[in-house]
Amino acid sequence: MYLCPRCEHRYEQAPEQCQECKRPLILNKRYRIEASIQTGLYGEDFDVLDLKSQKSMIVREFRVKKAEAAQRKGEVDAYERNVERLKGMKYEGAKVLLDAFVADYSNSICYYYTFDADAWSGLGDEIDPVSGSGGGEALPPVEGRDLDPELAAALAKISPSKPAAKDAPLAKTESGAIAASKDGAVATGPSKLIVIAGISVILIAIAVALVFLL
Questions:
Q1: Cα–Cα distance between 52 and 61 in angstroms, integer?
Q2: CA-based torsion, 137, 130, 136, 62: positive or negative
Q3: pTM of this prediction?
Q4: In this predicted model, what pLDDT tens digit does every residue of 35-68 receive, in sequence order?
Q5: What integer is the mean pLDDT of 27-34?
Q6: DSSP conformational letter for 160
Q7: DSSP 51-82
Q8: Which of 141, 142, 91, 139 is nearest to 117 (CA)?
Q9: Bridge partner list, 61
Q10: What does DSSP assign to residue 39?
Q11: How far apart are CA 18 and CA 11, in angstroms?
Q12: CA 206 vs CA 16, 193, 198, 211, 214: distances in Å
């Protein structure tokens, strides 16, 4: 017994399309939809059974309405680049992308990825940086990826250390005296010279007065 995951109509065997809700049930004549995982603005993620290998997989749908095909060409191009990128990606030694295909429906064209279930849950949106984002550049090619995704995310956030700030030059006061440096030393300025000169004049005057008194 098979239940349509959307309308729950019962079948002895799943047809390619549900007779009640008219939605596809078998994708690419191979992947039978078992459950809808999540639905977004531009598509849906499915838990599927590969009828050829009898293994559970994840299919991600990227849907483009035919009336919007011209405006969204950039997103379609990004999907194609992402497929090429994913072909060289591995997760824990296994291929991430197992299949990619396109389906032409009456009102829309759907672009599909078929993912290894463990890779899909482990890598998250990194496997499809374009999905639901309104379009964007795919990430650069990644080959032989076996790095833990949490570690990879942490490493990506690390920025190079900033160079140490240079010591600021000593500032001058309005009177021309140089401000104190970091170690507390103070350089001699014009105001201090004036004070010394004044004291010298007073000492000379006292000495002259003593001479006359003697």
A1: 20
A2: positive
A3: 0.60
A4: 999 988 888 999 999 999 999 999 999 999 999 9
A5: 97
A6: P
A7: TTTTEEEEEEEEEEEGGGTTTTHHHHHHHHHH
A8: 91
A9: 112
A10: E
A11: 9
A12: 119, 20, 13, 9, 13
Tokens coding 84: 């090429």
Torsion angle (degrees, nearest 10) of CA 70, 76, 80, 82: 150
The counts of H helices and E strands in the chain are 4, 10
> CA distances (Å), 63 to each of 136, 145, 180, 201, in order?
16, 28, 69, 96
Checking phi first, is residue 136 left (phi over 0); if not, alpha (psi -120 to 50) or beta? left
DSSP-derived pairing of the beta strands 26-27 and 31-40 = antiparallel
Q: How far apart (Å, rounded) are the C-alpha atoms in residues 71 and 56?
A: 35
Task: Determine contact, residues 113/59, Cβ cutoff 8 Å.
Answer: yes
Answer whether 111's CB lies under 8 Å from 141's CB. no
Mean pLDDT of the chain: 75
